[in-house]
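request received
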Amino acid sequence: MNKMDSSLKQLKVKGQAAKAASHRLAYISTDIKNNALLNIASDLLTRRGEILAANKKDYAAAKASSMGAALLDRLMLDEKRLEGIAADTRAVATLPDPVGETFEMRTMPNGLQIGKKRVPLGVIAAIYESRPNVTVDIAALCLMSGNAIILRGGKETIHSNTAIVGVIRDACDRAGMPEDCVQFIDNTDRALVNSLLRMNDVIDLVIPRGGAGLINSVKENATMAVVTGGIGVCHTYVDKMADIDEAVAIVNNAKVQRCTVCNALDTVLVHAGIAKSFLPKMAAELDKAKVELHCDKRAMTILKSNKSLKLVPAVAEDWGKEFLALIAAIKVVDSLDEALGHIEKYGSGHSEAIVTEDYSAAMRFLNEVDAACVYVNASTRFTDGGQFGLGAEVGISTQKLHARGPLGLKELTTYKWVILGSGQVRP
Amino acid sequence: MNKMDSSLKQLKVKGQAAKAASHRLAYISTDIKNNALLNIASDLLTRRGEILAANKKDYAAAKASSMGAALLDRLMLDEKRLEGIAADTRAVATLPDPVGETFEMRTMPNGLQIGKKRVPLGVIAAIYESRPNVTVDIAALCLMSGNAIILRGGKETIHSNTAIVGVIRDACDRAGMPEDCVQFIDNTDRALVNSLLRMNDVIDLVIPRGGAGLINSVKENATMAVVTGGIGVCHTYVDKMADIDEAVAIVNNAKVQRCTVCNALDTVLVHAGIAKSFLPKMAAELDKAKVELHCDKRAMTILKSNKSLKLVPAVAEDWGKEFLALIAAIKVVDSLDEALGHIEKYGSGHSEAIVTEDYSAAMRFLNEVDAACVYVNASTRFTDGGQFGLGAEVGISTQKLHARGPLGLKELTTYKWVILGSGQVRP
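response:
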């Protein structure tokens, strides 16, 4: 048997083990799951020696391969970061267990009791890139929602992830969870990912976390369900009836507070009736963070007298672009309808906001914009599981089926219909 | 431009028209949707002349092509059947509108009001086979749930469907619905279906209705979400502690009441401790409908003395087979665990039942069986949108994501997060 065949065989063994573990996990008590998470949190700290030693190996190898400083920083673990990861894990243990909830239970005229019971999805595979905290993060959320998990991290963090998964499995075992509920693919051969994506007999859902290349490749090749988010092209429409100071603060926060994430602002649409009073104030505020403004003709005419601004004439590619940087596109529109049309054409269905004091404009925006999250008078930066009160998230979905927006514990579950009879037959 | 290019262009025009209509449909009032359905119901009867004339053409062509009697019967419309279809449409209009429901609304510590609002999926495409009533049925459910619909029926019913869709569009228009919310693909070229399945820019969900060939082909080729059910391999486990008369009635109903449908019984698993008293009674009852029993060795030993029964030794292929006929496989098991193992191995995740008076056995079965619908002491034939109180269904899902079991109006919707602020920004 050559090396690839042996890895493939091992992958299938791990898949079967995860599936077998998932059966018991499906109805394990909340206490046991909570204890497993608390064990993980404490073991990450008591066994920090082996984790940090493994991480040093990854770091040294990455540095030798001339990885950039930003990526090196994402890969690096130290005691403080481990404490943060442990705290996040303890926080998941405080969330309500979504599994077992019975809902929509009714008694039919024939006496049948029919309702839905929330159950885990089964086996979830996560395919992700360099940050080792994702290993703990995803495992904690999947275990808390009763799912077995198959983890496939990046090759840059192979030593860190191996050490961390060892800790997680031991911690699960000590709490009375089947340790096979966490599986780790320690072979980072890419061909093996494609084999994984064909294992729809054991895997119920794949979650890719990483860049657009990874996400698109998983989407195209997976034979099971995939939940992805990824691209957020976010607009804020400043209506004619906006409170100008509020609009400046919201636009500034949405663009500047953290510009490298999917819920950050990309395009400001501003009504022509307020553009002359709003845009100079907005531009002055954004300029404090050196935001580059890609302006349409009318915005340019309004702003160009201020020579200190970083102004660039907008080109067609600026509309619908996710900048992930301190850049914003600015367009003046003549009506709410034009703004809605622009968002429909260029939005990615992630997060869209209107700033207005006009009740009817706010209601129309809420009704007519088709996106995971639609805001009135707030920053799109709030699109986040923690901010929405879900406690934690595995990602943000821009799909319409199953779950939309931040994916918390509940979104990692499904339901089954339970029917309690007393001998009923269908007439 | 050749014929195919022109059809493809027309398909894209229809797709765009459906998408444009879906925007207005998304927030149209319940009154208008109800009126459209009531108009459809009455127009189907007042315009029965043109519908029945079109149906006669389809029937004549099908007969000339030597279509079998069962298929011919499915294709045929008469006044009584039109009255039935109209009544079903009126029934959909009495169901609660799922769209617009706001739920899980909470106020966060910073004053943001965050919640979910139920909205239509957008544009749904239905690809289905010969029965013309499906055209009305699916259109009614999609319209009531606020979705635009693209219908692609079989070529055998092209005249009937063309007439029916004409009636539906006029009825929608008269009620104030955009008539473009219902699109009909009148070109039955198969290549065009593949083009349709690539239109993920306008279609949010595809529902295939028909045989396994159609369903698998749609699943493989669709670039958008697909909800399918299809195969139901249904077990009934008769536990050691079952009430024998109740078990006989339930097994008989599940097998005999309508054997050609997905929720009909395929395999009886019976505990060895009750097999000798149960199986002869069950076999005698099933024999009244001439059910053929595919028996494992132990069941055969128990039953073979009754020479009037239709007994066949079970072969490996009988386990996990959806018979869709008056055939049942019978297996004697030594424990609940063995029954659960068999169901896990051979079930299709559709409907599974236990008959028992043992509380703990019932609870274990409910917890441990992973299927869309899990029954205690009732016939699996109840798996149906109408029987479950959903009013109507577009199908039965055996998927785990989005929706499981009967798909009613609510399952044709999604939600968006709505966030009502007063100037909040993220710290």
